[in-house]
Amino acid sequence: ASTVMSYYNTSSSAWVNYTVPGRTLTLYKYDVPNVIRAGSDNKTADSPIMFSDYKTCDVVRAPHTGNDSDCELWVAEQYVNRYPSCCDFIYDLLCAPQKHHIYENHCTKPPR
Questions:
Q1: pTM of the model
Q2: How many CB atoms lie within 10 A of CB 71?
């Protein structure tokens, strides 16, 4: 499986899309998939899933930062302006107190 991700490049004033191969894994003695592995064969990043409502949001650890309490709140595009309060609650409960908001709803929408 793969995911199409986008970011807005302020230098070129354009959206950049890229495809990231990914899959879920069952690790740490769990019996259900609990880690998202993104990347290619020789360069991958694992993000343990801390919470998911399986529709609107996921809270995942961000071990690439070097801080064990860093997380990311992932929200499905169609729910970005109206996701359940439990997503914020779990994010606040399990993650580092410092938050970095990387989404701004006034940005131009990415091309389809």
A1: 0.75
A2: 25
Residue 4 pairs in a beta bridge with 19
Ramachandran bin of 107, using left for φ above 0, alpha for ψ from -120 to 50, beta for the remaining angles: beta
Residue 112 above 60 pLDDT?
A: no
Report the alpha-carbon angle 5-57-30, nearest 5: 100
Q: Which residues on neighbouring strands pair with residue 25, listed in sequence order?
A: 35
| Count of C-beta atoms within a 10 Å radius of residue 98 | 8
Closest CA to 63 of 73, 41, 48: 48
8 A C-beta contact, residue 49 and residue 58: yes
